[in-house]
Specification:
The complex is a heterodimer of chains A (about 250) and B (about 220). Chain A is α/β, with parallel strands linked by helices and about 250 residues long. Chain A has helices at about 45-55, 75-80, 100-110, 115-130, 145-155, 175-190, 200-205, 225-230, 235-250, and strands at about 5-15, 20-30, 35-40, 60-65, 70, 85, 160-165, 195, 210-215, 220-225. Helices cover about 80% and strands about 0% of the residues of chain B. In chain B, helix 1 (about 1-45) packs antiparallel against helix 2 (about 50-65) and helix 1 packs antiparallel against helix 7 (about 170-185). Classes of the chains: A alpha/beta (about 250), B mainly alpha (about 220).
Chain lengths: ~250, ~220
């Protein structure tokens, strides 16, 4: 079975924390250049799913393939993690380093890139997220939106094949959300492969190729935004999307 | 009284100076080794397996739970019974180092645990190994946060070196005792000693404050 055209293939993933079964048999695939958005009520295992993919959390069973490699049985997880970018809700920036150094540290420490090359690379990535003039600032001197854009630049600098976004705008003031979504939209247009957990319906609707609706640890429904918004197969999908749209607006940010 | 103080200083300054030298030597050796070993123990306590944590914790509790003077007496008077002999200087230094290590391990552990966990997670997500993450992300921030506690420890330690005179190590207090009993000017001699300790403490405090300032992260300064 050669399915290596998929960049990511998740099969029957299960994970429980103690008594609490968080993921029950989750399966889906992602192709190169796709943007998929995962939505669903809190506590349904969306973040757990992302952290399982790069093994920050170990799943109980199931398989995860990055191209042809079974991630769950990888000998050197560090080598695989550098191919999967991760953008955190709370940024996770290194507080003692400038924006520039935050972006440089991965290529230098993990890919053994020279300082000079890493600096040029960080320069490019910061330019891409529109933060060149803030390159020498420390995280505490940046706004939330700027911090998150540094987070994205830091992930990009590793030249990942896939980037996972875990509610990247949930910790931001409303007026700072737009600048982060704009960067993500730009990445989507440049065919970066992205898997995004978010409540931003406008973004999901206009940017994603597919929406995955999760509840209670299972994928209830997945399909194109058009299909899910206009003609959901499950009652719950319709209810949830209606609620979110009511809350966040239809938005065309 | 002032005349006596001046006279003592004029007549005995080489002796005081020698004492200060030994005091500083003891303090500096135990400060630096205590900081180094304490930092290692702190990281072991946070990031090691249960077995190592139990050993480290046991060491720390034993050392912190017993008077330093008792430990020094065990090294100096007790161990020779079993054929292990050391000089007064050696026994004292050993006592100072293990105490400083134990206390600083706990201060530093607090500093490590005050650093947001998500930075470690982020470092791992980039593909950095655990050791790389500890050395490049956690350690630099730990040191910065531990300095105020270290400053306290260094001040205590410098003053505690005066305990060494009890077993006859030739440090400042021992020299002072000799000078005072020879001249019968206890008040004046110990005033001089107090002033010397005060000056040494102020210098240490000043140096560490400068270091703290230097390591301050822009945007995270204390609001005044």
């Amino acid at each position: 079975m050669s399915e290596s055209k998929h960049i990511l293939r998740v099969e029957n993933l299960r994970k429980s924390f103690g008594e609490n079964l968080v993921l029950k048999d989750v399966s889906f695939t992602m192709d190169k250049g796709e943007t998929k958005v995962i939505i669903g009520p809190s506590g349904t295992g969306k973040s757990t799913l992302l952290t399982c993919i790069n093994q920050l959390v170990k799943p109980d069973s199931g398989k995860i393939y990055l191209k042809d490699i079974n991630v769950t049985q990888a000998e050197n997880m560090n080598r695989i993690r550098q191919r999967i970018g991760f953008v955190f809700q709370d940024f996770g920036l290194f507080n003692h380093l400038t924006a520039m150094r935050n972006v440089m540290i991965g290529p230098i420490k993990v890919q053994k890139m020279s300082k000079e090359d890493a600096k040029n690379l960080a320069y490019e990535e910061l330019k891409r997220v529109g933060l060149l003039e803030h390159a020498d600032k420390y995280p505490a001197q940046l706004s939330g939106g700027q911090k998150q854009r540094v987070g994205i630049a830091r992930a990009l600098a590793m030249q990942p094949e896939l980037i996972l976004f875990d509610e990247p705008t949930s910790a931001l003031d409303p007026e700072l959300i737009g600048e982060v979504l704009a960067v993500m939209k730009d990445l989507a247009e440049n065919r970066m492969t992205m898997l995004i957990v978010t409540h931003e319906m406008g973004f999901a609707r206009t940017v994603s190729d597919e929406i995955i609706f999760m509840e209670g640890g299972v994928i209830v429904e997945q399909g194109s935004p058009e299909k899910l918004f206009k003609n959901p197969q499950h009652k719950r999908t319709g209810e949830f999307l209606f609620k979110l749209t009511e809350l966040y607006g239809e938005g065309d940010r | 009284m002032l005349n006596n103080i001046v006279e003592i200083v004029v007549n005995h300054w080489p002796s005081f100076l020698e004492g200060v030298g030994v005091t500083l030597l003891m303090a500096l050796i135990s400060m630096s080794l205590g900081t180094f070993l304490g930092t290692i123990l702190a990281f072991l306590k946070v990031y090691s397996n249960k077995f190592v944590v139990a050993i480290v914790s046991g060491f720390i509790e034993i050392i912190r739970g017993t008077p330093m003077l008792v430990q020094i007496f065990i090294f100096y008077f007790g161990l020779p019974v079993y054929g292990i002999r050391m000089t007064a200087f050696g026994a004292c230094i050993l006592g100072f180092i293990i105490n400083s290590t134990a206390y600083q391990a706990e201060y530093t552990r607090g500093a490590i645990q005050s650093i947001e966990q998500n930075q470690m997670t982020a470092a791992r997500s980039l593909g950095m190994t655990r050791n790389q993450s500890i050395f490049s992300v956690i350690l630099p921030q730990t040191i910065k946060r531990a300095i105020p506690a270290w400053t306290n420890e260094f001040i205590y330690l410098l003053k505690y070196t005066s305990l060494a005179y009890i077993v006859g190590a030739e440090e400042l207090m021992e020299k002072a005792k000799v000078i005072a009993s020879r001249n019968f000017l206890f008040f004046e001699v110990y005033i001089i000693v107090a002033v010397i300790y005060l000056i040494l403490v102020l210098v240490i405090t000043w140096l560490l404050q400068k270091l703290e300032k230097k390591l301050e992260i822009p945007g995270m300064e204390t609001v005044r």
